[in-house]
TrEMBL record:
Record bears the keyword Repeat: yes
Protein name according to UniProt: Copper-exporting P-type ATPase
Domain HMA: 4-70, 72-138
Family classification: Belongs to the cation transport ATPase (P-type) (TC 3.A.3) family. Type IB subfamily.
Enzyme Commission no: 7.2.2.8
Record's keyword annotation contains NAD: no
Catalytic activity from the UniProt record: Cu(+)(in) + ATP + H2O = Cu(+)(out) + ADP + phosphate + H(+)
PROSITE patterns: ATPASE_E1_E2, HMA_1, HMA_2
Topological relation to the membrane, as annotated: Multi-pass membrane protein
Compartmental location: Cell membrane; Endomembrane system
InterPro entries: ATPase_P-typ_cyto_dom_N, ATPase_P-typ_P_site, ATPase_P-typ_TM_dom_sf, ATPase_P-typ_transduc_dom_A_sf, ATPase_P-type_domA, HAD-like_sf, HAD_sf, Heavy-metal-associated_CS
Alphabetic keyword roster: ATP-binding, Cell membrane, Copper, Copper transport, Ion transport, Magnesium, Membrane, Metal-binding, Nucleotide-binding, Phosphoprotein, Repeat, Translocase, Transmembrane, Transmembrane helix, Transport
């Protein structure tokens, strides 16, 4: 069994009932393990067994259910063609690729237009296939033909609304002038004529409203119902009953004026189209986070080939390429600096506005900005492997996944439409036989109104729009949720367990203390730097870096010997140096009592202290420590203010761990835990009934991250830790832990507000409509308003801000 996941874009869904129907249809296919259809993103996420089924079957099933799989279209320029036979060869090669619907090569202008399913094949795959037969494809900029489906939908609905509104306004005018308080308004007699109303209403009903008939037909053909069924049924009844009344008025000698419903049908369709227009615009805004991330990517790269600089599309860069980045330009892909130094704006990843100094052998991230200095960089990660591509992937998956709470709404919306139709028919029968016996006109109003007002759009949009907006805002704040379920569960966290090294602390030792008792600090440190210069020990590097930062010049040693477990011995400028532990001093009969008290104080504070001896005399001591991150103390205080228990879990010795814990305000420290025991400690906390979040950055944290209720990986940590976690904190700042919990709380509160509004709207609206207390056109306006209001409420999440003291505020 070989499992794989694909995302399939779907066109034609009109409400949550559509999404629910497609999801059920896909789940029933043999070989499909799980299918999620997101109405807001208009995509299906399918996990399947590649040995039993192919994506082609998914497309066929979706089409059988009455919907379409969105096709991507891309135009490539071709280099290398010499004749029409070349064009024919390229065309055949492309059309034989799984997922390609069509390929048309134009030899005269040397380009090819390819229509493909993005779930099965990518533009990179197309380029590679053609490259194998000796030609090169270069992607053109997008044009009208390759415009985004949602932009097309906005234009389409805008045109339909303008068309319907122009024809509906005169009909709405006839309705308005019926009210007593508007009797002073002038009404041309011609607009009261049934045949004029018929002429105005017919194009609205059958041209602008054609989309509802098509959607209803597809739904009914697959033995289900959706919002299109409700709209089509309600407006059709109003239209044809009005037509019958007009005919009856005509054969009866045109006596009086019949009570027609042409205006109700036309105005309902116009308002529903307006609601869909607002909805599709608002839904587009919930996906802005992805667009912002994609905008960060460079479009081209200046690579060096055969000694020449060549500007190519960023997609053409391969691992191992050397590229040049000049001041003010974006880094095209992830890489390692070969030559040059500069300061880079990495705020997109770290959130820090201060540029970071970079030098040869330092890693750079695609999308960050080179502020000054020209860099020569070796590409190490390209395409989908870059840090930015991984961020985009995580956000897309989070926005496309379902929270548990959404499944409740899905189940409700799946049975909602048939129930509404029964209620509408029941209302009609009650009015016709009991309330106003024999009066079709009186019975018709509640029938139409119930059908229109009960559309489950708001119910279907309630959760996914909030998930999209919340996860998008989280990404902007440097918090990546891997799925909607993790966004939902994070708010339940009671205990936060923090790894020490690289999480609470910086993960890099620094020279923190220098105490000289014999000689000047500058002279002694110059000798110490020389002695440690060639040592491979991490602490030696920290010492040398610290001395260099003090502006002290370091000479070359004449002799150097590493003494594992003790320290180093060196000859510098004719002097003999010993730097290391008490044991090393004792071996050479050197008394370190002079500095013992200071040394013990530093060790109690969690620092590694080393004695310096020059020519058999104690010269002083130096201390190295993995320093606490600047924000750790404030972050721990903020977590506590949110009512969270904070624990530190580390493999370090208890004395050092306790010192670090005291420094940042952590009361409970679990120390000297080997990596395989970390997961056991998390399980112990869970057995106490606590919901536990584990925050770590190293490979040794991966088991604990996977076991925890919510695993949070520091984004500056290892790939293994990030892969095992449910949430990635890109900024390496523990403030993001509190951010993630508050983001989760606010998103879930927003979802509940949306669901409450949607349920209350339908629950209250249907009885009022059944009682005949609402005009059909008012129901249409209310239905449109309900969908738009739910989406707009979700969009408030994009403006979330948090106070660093712990109290949140939404702006």
């Amino acid at each position: 069994m070989v499992e794989k996941e694909v995302y399939i874009p779907i066109e034609g869904m009109t409400c949550a009932a559509c999404a629910n129907r497609i999801e059920k249809g896909l789940t029933r296919l043999d070989g499909v393990d799980k299918a999620n259809v997101n109405f807001a993103t208009e995509k299906a996420k399918i996990r399947y067994d590649t040995e039993k089924i192919t994506p082609k079957a998914f497309e066929e099933k979706i089409q059988h259910l009455g919907y379409n799989v969105s096709k991507e279209k891309v135009v490539f320029d071709i280099t290398g063609m010499t004749c029409a036979a070349c064009a024919n060869r390229i065309e055949k090669k492309l059309t034989r690729i799984d997922g390609v619907s069509s390929a048309s090569v134009n030899f005269a202008v040397e380009n090819v237009t390819v229509e493909y399913n993005s779930s099965e094949v990518t533009p990179v795959d197309l380029k590679e296939a053609v490259k194998k037969i000796g030609y090169t494809l270069n992607e053109q900029d997008s044009n009208e033909e390759t415009a985004d489906y949602r932009d097309k939908e906005i234009r389409n609905q805008t045109g339909k609304f303008i068309f319907a509104a122009i024809l509906s306004l005169p009909l709405l005018w006839t309705m308005v002038t019926h009210f007593e308080f508007t009797s002073f308004l002038y009404m041309p007699d011609m607009f009261m004529n049934p045949w004029v109303q018929l002429a105005l209403a017919t194009p609205v009903q059958f041209i602008a409203g054609a989309q509802f008939y098509k959607g209803a037909y597809k739904a009914l053909r697959s033995k289900s119902a959706n919002m299109d069924v409700l709209i089509a049924l309600g407006t059709t009844v109003a239209f044809f009953y009005s037509l019958f009344l007009g005919y009856e008025w005509h054969i009866n000698g045109q006596v009086g004026m019949p009570e027609l419903y042409f205006e109700a049908a036309a105005v309902i369709i116009t308002l529903v189209i307006l609601g869909k227009l607002f909805e599709v615009r608002a839904k587009g805004r919930t996906g802005k986070a992805i667009e912002k991330l994609l905008d960060m990517q460079a479009k081209t790269a200046r690579i060096v080939r055969d000694g020449l600089e060549v500007e190519v599309p960023v997609e053409a860069v391969v691992v191992g390429d050397t590229f040049i980045v000049r001041p003010g330009e974006k880094i095209p892909v992830d890489g390692e600096i070969v030559k040059g130094s500069s300061a880079l704006d990495e705020s997109m990843i770290t959130g820090e506005s201060i540029p970071v100094d970079k030098k040869p052998k330092d890693v750079v991230i695609g999308g960050t900005i080179n502020k000054n200095g020209t860099l020569t960089v070796n590409a190490t990660k390209v395409g989908k492997d870059t840090a930015l591509a991984q961020i985009v992937k995580v956000v897309e998956e989070a926005q496309g996944s379902k929270a548990d709470i959404q499944r409740v709404a899905d189940r409700v919306s799946g049975v909602f439409v048939p129930i509404v139709v029964l209620i509408a028919v029941g209302s009609f029968l009650a009015w016709y036989f009991l309330i106003e016996p024999g009066d079709v006109r009186s019975a018709l109003v509640p029938l139409i109104t119930v059908l229109v007002i009960a559309c489950p759009c708001a119910l279907g949009l309630a959760t996914p729009t909030s998930i999209m907006a919340g996860s998008g805002r989280a990404a902007e704040m440097g918090v990546l949720f891997k799925g909607g379920e993790h966004l939902e569960h994070t708010r339940n966290i009671q205990t936060v367990v923090l790894d020490k090294t690289g999480t609470v602390t910086k993960g890099e030792p620094e020279l923190t203390n220098v105490d000289i008792v014999n000689g000047t600090e500058q002279d002694v440190l110059a000798l110490v730097g020389a002695a440690e210069k060639h040592s491979e020990h991490p602490l030696a590097k920290a010492i040398v870096d610290g001395i260099k930062k003090r502006g002290i010049s370091i000479p070359e040693p004449e002799q150097f010997t590493a003494l594992p477990g003790f320290g180093v011995e060196a000859q510098v400028d004719g002097k003999t140096l010993y730097i290391g532990t008490r044991k090393l001093m004792k071996q050479h009969q050197l008394d370190s009592q002079l500095i013992e008290e200071k040394m013990a104080t530093l060790e109690t504070a969690g620092k590694t202290a080393m004695v310096i001896a020059i020519d058999n005399e104690i010269a002083g001591l130096i201390a190295v420590s993995d320093t606490v991150k600047d924000t750790s103390k404030a972050a721990v205080a903020r977590m506590k203010s949110l009512g969270l228990e904070v624990i530190m879990l580390t493999g370090d010795n208890e004395k050092t761990a306790t010192a670090i814990g005291n420094q940042v305000g952590i009361d409970r420290v679990i120390a000297e835990v080997v990596p395989e025991q970390k997961a056991d400690e998390i399980k112990k906390l869970q057995l106490e009934g606590k919901k536990v979040a584990m925050v770590g950055d190293g490979m040794n944290d991966a088991p604990a991250l996977a076991v925890a209720d919510v695993g949070m990986a520091i984004g500056t940590g290892t790939d293994v830790a990030i892969e095992a976690a449910d949430v990635t904190l890109m900024r390496g700042d523990l403030q993001s832990v509190a951010d993630s919990i508050q983001l989760s709380e606010k998103t879930m509160r927003n979802i509940k507000q949306n669901l409450f509004f949607a349920f209350v709207y339908n629950s209250a609206g249907i009885p009022i409509a059944a009682a005949g207390l609402l005009a059909p056109w008012v129901a249409g306006a209310a239905m449109a308003f309900s969908s738009v209001s739910v989406v707009l409420n979700a969009l408030r999440l994009q403006r979330m801000r948090f106070k660093k003291e712990g109290d949140s505020r939404e702006q």
